[in-house]
Amino acid sequence: MDFIRYAEAAASLLNADLSEVDGLVAYLDGRPGLQERAIDRDCMLLRKLQRELRPIFDAGEAGDITAVVSGLNGLLTRHPMTPQISDHDASNLHLHVGTGSGSVAEQVVGESLLGLATLVCDLGADRLGVCSSAQCSNAFVDASPNRSRRYCSERCSSRANVAAYRARRKAAIEA
């Protein structure tokens, strides 16, 4: 299990439009086995997870370690899972998360929670963030070496940099 990849997928899940199955299928890009099994009930369950994960990312952004840990522990308690070593690629042994029900939603919930919990334990709760752009509230995982990420994407970062440049230029002209 690549915990950073699963944690980043949890942030992407938080940002995904899951109002319809098509949104879930788009989120599951590259995972045809899950895409073909996605149903409305999965969307409903994952929208609930989105509402539960948002305060955890907000707490990570605020540096509130206690809230991140208690929020994740609460979700881990409500969503028990069984990690298992997968050997479908013998050169790349890794963990898969089994949940019992086998639904797409439970698979995604298990991966998300185990990925986030491992990331928080290994790298810290402050690696969960919310975009600093005034026009955006997307969540992200900061896997940068120096904990410097402030934006969810290059697009938001570029917009903020251009806006700051224009503001400086305008201030210089007016001065």
UniProtKB/TrEMBL annotation:
InterPro entries: ABATE (IPR010852), ABATE_dom_sf (IPR023286), Znf_CGNR (IPR021005). Gene3D superfamilies: Jann2411-like domain. It comes from the Bacteria. Pfam families: zf-CGNR. Residues 127-169 form the Zinc finger CGNR domain. This is CGNR zinc finger domain-containing protein.
